[in-house]
Write a structure and sequence with these properties.
Helices cover 82% and strands 0% of the residues. The chain has 100 residues and is mainly α. The protein has 2 domains: 57 residues; 43 residues.
């Protein structure tokens, strides 16, 4: 791996060789693959937790989920400046996508 100013030259050369569309496509593909792997690992871990008999996993009904979201709005608002509204909005959108 290049060191120091060599890193800058290396990066600059890459920018000349790789167009933004290609880079974004590669990032989207890598993200999708990583998310699929994370989903698989999470599901495996959930099954182990359930099989252990030590813990109980409670899945919310749609009404319970809505009540949770409604209760969390003030908390999200409180931390908006520290965390960033865009990050909170992305987390809420991801959570909504996984429950619908």
């Amino acid at each position: 791996m290049p060191q120091g100013s060599d890193v800058d030259r290396y990066r600059d050369n890459l920018q000349d060789e790789i167009d933004s569309a290609t880079l974004y496509k590669a990032m989207a593909e890598a993200t999708a693959l990583n998310n699929a792997n994370a989903d698989k690992l999470n599901e495996e871990a959930k099954k182990k937790i359930q099989a252990s008999g030590v813990s109980t996993i409670h899945e919310l009904t749609p009404a319970q989920h809505k009540a949770w979201v409604d209760a969390m709005h003030p908390v999200w608002k409180k931390f908006e400046k520290q965390i960033g509204k865009d990050i909170i909005d992305a987390a809420v959108a991801a959570n909504d996508a996984n429950t619908n």
